[in-house]
């Protein structure tokens, strides 16, 4: 076992924790926390693969920075969506917006 | 030899922080406590970046994730006027946990054996890249990605403002 595999295993564990939160949580904010954990695992995996193999290290680090930018954009949009859902349905649980009109 | 043991100890320490924070983030009944766990986990990942000699990424992790994204999520908890438990007071439902466990085990059960068998033999020590080289990369071959992420952020901000200012009386 070399160091790269250990870092990748930590990234897989973060992915698993995020998936667990995404499925098991009731509220939209709890699910968002799971998504952030998964994106962190992705960034860790990218940086480890770039730093510990002969691949281009600059590309890997910039890729991780882009993942962070995407996470920030995604968190902004989810904040707005949570606001709209809680305004219209009274609470921010994932089950609230499940009824169709009509 | 001594440095090697020190590095392994640091890796185990940061991994412990990451996992402890992550478990708190996914299992806590209170959303505010879950956010605290997420912050701890993010700091642990920043420590792992430092171990990988990616100190610029580690700083950005603390600035962007811990500084900005976490505050945004705290705003989401606050503005939905949820109580401190944020609607998770009943805890995780039994059916939800039952559904979640196989969903975690399937990707982990596929990826970890693949890593163990086909894992690439990496370098023993990480490479050292200065922030100046990162800047040169952003202004050189990766300019398009840099500009595109700016456009994505602008679109996300504009969309968020548009959604949040929706008229309350508007029936739709």
Automatic annotation (TrEMBL), chain A:
Enzyme Commission designation: 7.1.1.-
Superkingdom in the source lineage: Bacteria
GO CC annotations, alphabetized: plasma membrane
GN (gene name): nuoK
GO molecular-function terms, A-Z: NADH dehydrogenase (quinone) (non-electrogenic) activity; quinone binding
Alphabetical keyword list: Cell inner membrane, Cell membrane, Membrane, NAD, Oxidoreductase, Quinone, Translocase, Transmembrane, Transmembrane helix, Transport, Ubiquinone
Keyword ATP-binding: no
Gene Ontology process terms (BP): ATP synthesis coupled electron transport
Membrane topology: Multi-pass membrane protein
Name of protein: NADH-quinone oxidoreductase subunit K
Family, as annotated: Belongs to the complex I subunit 4L family.
Role summary: NDH-1 shuttles electrons from NADH, via FMN and iron-sulfur (Fe-S) centers, to quinones in the respiratory chain. The immediate electron acceptor for the enzyme in this species is believed to be ubiquinone. Couples the redox reaction to proton translocation (for every two electrons transferred, four hydrogen ions are translocated across the cytoplasmic membrane), and thus conserves the redox energy in a proton gradient.
Main location: membrane
Catalysis performed (reactions): a quinone + NADH + 5 H(+)(in) = a quinol + NAD(+) + 4 H(+)(out)
TM annotation in the entry: 6-23, 30-50, 62-85
Keyword Transmembrane part of the UniProt annotation: yes
Compartments, record wording: Cell membrane; Membrane
Subunit structure: NDH-1 is composed of 14 different subunits. Subunits NuoA, H, J, K, L, M, N constitute the membrane sector of the complex.
Listed InterPro entries: NADH_UbQ_OxRdtase_chain4L/K, NUOK/Mnh_C1-like
UniProtKB/TrEMBL annotation, chain B:
EC number: 7.1.1.-
The keyword Transmembrane is annotated on this UniProt entry: yes
InterPro entries, per database record: NADH_UbQ/plastoQ_OxRdtase_su6, Nuo/plastoQ_OxRdtase_6_NuoJ
Subcellular location: Cell membrane
Keyword NAD among UniProt keywords: yes
Sorted UniProt keywords: Cell membrane, Membrane, NAD, Quinone, Transmembrane, Transmembrane helix
Origin superkingdom: Bacteria
Transmembrane segments: 6-27, 34-52, 58-79, 100-121, 141-165
Gene Ontology molecular function, alphabetical: NADH dehydrogenase (ubiquinone) activity; quinone binding
Reactions it catalyzes: a quinone + NADH + 5 H(+)(in) = a quinol + NAD(+) + 4 H(+)(out)
Family note: Belongs to the complex I subunit 6 family.
Protein's name according to its UniProt entry: NADH-quinone oxidoreductase subunit J
Organism: Solidesulfovibrio aerotolerans
Lineage of source species: Bacteria, Pseudomonadati, Thermodesulfobacteriota, Desulfovibrionia, Desulfovibrionales
């Amino acid at each position: 076992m070399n160091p790269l595999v250990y870092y990748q295993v930590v990234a897989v564990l973060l992915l698993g924790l995020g998936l667990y939160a995404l499925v098991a949580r009731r509220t939209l904010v709890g699910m968002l926390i799971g998504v952030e954990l998964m994106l962190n695992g992705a960034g860790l995996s990218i940086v480890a693969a770039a730093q510990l193999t002969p691949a281009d290290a600059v590309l890997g680090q910039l890729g991780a920075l882009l993942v962070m930018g995407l996470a920030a954009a995604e968190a902004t949009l989810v904040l707005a969506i949570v606001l709209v859902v809680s305004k219209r349905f009274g609470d921010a649980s994932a089950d609230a917006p499940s009824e169709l009109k009509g | 030899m001594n440095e090697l043991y020190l590095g392994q100890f640091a890796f185990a320490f940061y991994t412990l922080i990451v996992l402890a924070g992550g478990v708190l983030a996914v299992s806590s009944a209170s959303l505010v406590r879950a956010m605290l766990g997420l912050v701890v986990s993010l700091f642990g990942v920043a420590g792992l970046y430092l171990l990988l000699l990616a100190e610029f990424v580690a700083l950005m992790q603390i600035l962007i994730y811990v500084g900005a994204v976490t505050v945004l999520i705290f705003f989401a908890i606050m503005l939905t006027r949820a109580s401190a438990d944020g609607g998770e007071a009943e805890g995780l439902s039994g059916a939800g946990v039952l559904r979640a466990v196989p969903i975690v085990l399937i990707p982990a059960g596929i990826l970890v054996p693949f890593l163990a068998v086909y894992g690439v033999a990496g370098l023993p020590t990480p490479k050292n890249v200065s922030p100046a080289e990162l800047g040169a990369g952003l202004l050189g071959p990766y300019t398009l990605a840099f500009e595109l992420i700016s456009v994505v952020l602008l679109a996300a901000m504009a969309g968020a403002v548009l959604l949040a200012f929706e008229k309350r009386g508007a029936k739709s």
